[in-house]
Write the structure tokens for this entry.
Amino acid sequence: MKLIALDSSGLTASCAILEDDILRAEYTVDFKKTHSQTLLPMLDALASMTELDLSTVDAIAVAAGPGSFTGLRIGSATVKGLGLALGKPVIEVPTLAGLAWNLWGAKGLIAPVMDARRSQVYSGLYRFENGSFVTVRDQAAVSVEDLADELNAMNPADGIIFLGDGVQVYRETLDRLVTVPHLYAPPHKARQRASSVGALARLFYEEGRVTDADAHAPVYLRKSQAEREREQQLLTGEQASDPFSRAASARRI
């Protein structure tokens, strides 16, 4: 089985080619260029180096979210374009599950965290039990304080391992608020890896968890800033046009 895997959900852009149990190639960059500049050239370079005929792949895997709205849209558009052009299905891998897969076989509760801005993180909780990947708590957007309270209440006997770009932003806060034993993944395991997305996608494929390219859509978990601002503008406009709202505002003042 051949898979192309892509992850542009966060600061890191990553592409990988997997064939059966072999990682043929992986290209990962965490730098200041936008994913629209890097993703397709990275994939083209991998295909060239491995002499891969893209038409021979069985499916295309993608980190489907949550994450950066722009990054997810770029990854989604790339996957949809490839899938439609090649006539291949898409395998949608939850971003945080893909991150957790970096630590395959690790003991302890795995807690990937991504910076979601506005004092929140995208987080999920996972562990490996007897070779099986278990979702303890599905991915969600939460405050760092709520995440810390949740972990302290769980108090896992085998500790917690944090990873993801949220660690860089909130490490001091996590150290202050999380009172149970915890540690942090090393650099080569701490960020998005398309190889992990591809490895987990292979299991999804065997379970029949695939979708048509034209039906694929990223998972945002919450509204974008532009959507929030538009809703606020609409709400403000409605209040301004409503004499009762204006009267109520005057009374509050």
